[in-house]
Write a structure and sequence with these properties.
This protein has two helices and eight strands. The chain has 123 residues and is of the alpha/beta class. A hairpin with a 2-residue loop joins β6 and β7.
Length: 123
């Protein structure tokens, strides 16, 4: 069975995005150049940042068109993460709110990619 093993975001400035995600993930990339960087994630997947102007074929996707999701154990953890990210100066696009799927908030990275943090609804 085929399954994806990395996530890639097209970004404007790789160094700016590397600094942001290094702070968010708490570790440096394992590969880092002017136009590309790669971070290993705890679940075994890889997370890449690629300068859109350098990618071939040229991407049509733009920042804000998709989300990275971060699942937390409960609502208190979501509130704590919101306070932490707000304190770091991250742009908060959606304050903590209850939605159909759970308790959530959304932040933005430097290119406008959405970072959704949530705790699933208890069913």
């Amino acid at each position: 069975m085929l399954s994806p093993d990395f996530i890639l975001l097209y970004v404007e400035k790789v160094p700016t995005s590397v600094a942001f995600y290094q702070g968010l993930l708490g570790k440096p990339p394992v590969e880092n150049s002017a136009n590309f960087a790669m971070f290993p994630l705890e679940n075994g997947m890889m997370f890449g940042l690629w300068a859109g102007h350098d990618a071939e074929p040229k991407p049509k996707a733009a920042g804000g068109g998709s989300e990275l999701g971060f699942t937390l154990k409960d609502d208190a953890a979501v509130d704590a993460m919101h306070a932490d990210w707000k304190g770091r100066g991250y742009i908060i696009a959606q304050k903590p709110v209850r939605m159909d799927f759970g308790y959530t908030f959304t932040a933005l990275d430097p290119d406008g990619h959405r970072l959704r943090v949530f705790s699933p609804s208890q069913r």
